[in-house]
User: Fold this.
Amino acid sequence: MLRSHTGNKINLPSAVELFRFHGRKLYIKRDDLIDQDLSGNKFRKLFFLLNSSSADYKRIISYGGSQSNAMASIAALSKRQEWRFIYVTKALSSTLRQNLEGNLKAAIDDGMELVEVPHEQYREVVESLYSPAPYAGLGLEDGDLVLAQGGADLGAREGIVLLAEEIAQWKHQHKVEKLTVVTPSGTGTTAYFLAMSLPDITVITTPLIGSKEYLFEQMDFLGPLPENLAVIETEKKYRFAKTYPEYLALYNMFLDQGVEIDLLYAPKMLRALSETLADIEGDILYVHSGGVKGNHTMLARYRFKGLL
Ligand SMILES: *Cc1c(COP(=O)(O)O)cnc(C)c1O
Assistant:
């Protein structure tokens, strides 16, 4: 059994389990079970930092939404590595500040230092992190690492290559001839490096944040688009972090089979997959991208709306 240097148990390679999906077999790669704090693709994307030595950095600086899964994962990792973690976000609402919950609470409990900036200054402050004229108090020093929003960093490649190797090995061991790998996209970093590392396998993804064009733009920062990467859309438009009865139905469908999916990313991906299922030959492997810890706050919203 692998352990991180701080003693946490790490389940690698992650297990592959068989489920049913609209009459088809669906294999799920249980990346949600790798590590108790760093779940799913955030474990893969931050693997290079987990693998580095505590002395390599003093502070990690990142930015993004106040309930981001990446934020909570970087906070857990920084705590283990004894790095300071500075996180820039738009000023919190007074209700959220008085009633910290979900990923934000977990991250602050792990020692994250929150820098709230006025909404209209956010862009400018984020850009200043990449320039020599930083925002007050955020002057970069030796030992600082600026991590792009959502961990969309070239360093993410290392952990995703490992995921790709595990998939290739599983495919070989189980004599799977034709395989399609499916995983949802935020920044597209996971899907991009996965497709790059598995040139003989089709990787299907769907954008959760913004349009297909926006996703391609994000991936463009990482390099040229791999030909085996397919970006698909749902017939209906879904907005990120909203509640939908059909999302809840998918959540329950998998929960009944013994696996909990996240309520932000997985449902739209699975819905898009169901709409294209008839066109896919061979076996399908869904990479569970984690995020289950955020379900608590999402389920509360479903309850509030009377959907649950
Ligand atoms: C962050 C996240 C994603 C998106 O990953 P990207 O590499 O940014 O595309 C997908 N699913 C879950 C659960 C996530 O937390």
